[in-house]
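Figure 6 in text form: structure in, sequence out.
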């Protein structure tokens, strides 16, 4: 669907970055957030203390949650495949997504079109000292609870909207990720 962007963020339980402990999604259409989704995810693997400290997500908080495969099959997959996928530092989030898709063997397109708001913000806001999510969010006045997938996805959606409103041509940033 043209002009439909699926902005997402994941948090991971450990340094392997092969599973997720939460996912946040914001759908952007016509330069507005039109839908959102957030869920904790049972990663069915171990947690590192660092990740628990960073995200506040514990094994106990995800123990009774759906795993990625269950979430994907209950509607997340339809949302994620309904537009161009966007993330801040997209190679990281796309890598985690691809590993989860492969591990759970869920039905998914082999290739996903995506773009990165880090790259877009570098083009739109070259004056910033860096293009980390919190730096760009602060500059744009976007409220952020960093390392919360719901908040991070919303912030990335606002960055996308800003960049598109300020002259970024999305086609200059689209890449293809082979799942």
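Output sequence:
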């Amino acid at each position: 669907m043209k002009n439909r962007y699926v902005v997402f963020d994941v948090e991971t339980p450990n340094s392997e970055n092969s599973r997720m402990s939460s996912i946040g999604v914001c759908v952007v259409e016509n330069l507005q957030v039109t839908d959102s989704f957030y869920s904790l995810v049972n990663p069915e693997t171990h947690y590192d203390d660092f990740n628990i400290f960073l995200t506040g997500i514990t094994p106990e908080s995800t123990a009774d949650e759906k795993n990625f495969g269950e979430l994907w099959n209950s509607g997340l997959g339809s949302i994620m495949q309904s537009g161009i996928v966007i993330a801040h530092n997209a190679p990281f989030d796309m890598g985690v997504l691809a590993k989860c898709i492969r591990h759970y063997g869920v039905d998914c397109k082999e290739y996903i079109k995506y773009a990165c708001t880090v790259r877009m913000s570098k083009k739109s806001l070259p004056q910033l000292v860096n293009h980390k999510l919190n730096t760009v969010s602060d500059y744009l006045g976007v409220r952020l609870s960093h390392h919360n997938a719901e908040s991070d996805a919303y912030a990335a959606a606002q960055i996308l909207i800003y960049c598109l409103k300020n002259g970024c041509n999305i086609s200059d940033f689209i890449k293809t990720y082979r799942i």
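Caption detail: The beta strands are 4-11, 22-29, 32-40, 84-87, 111-116, 175-178.
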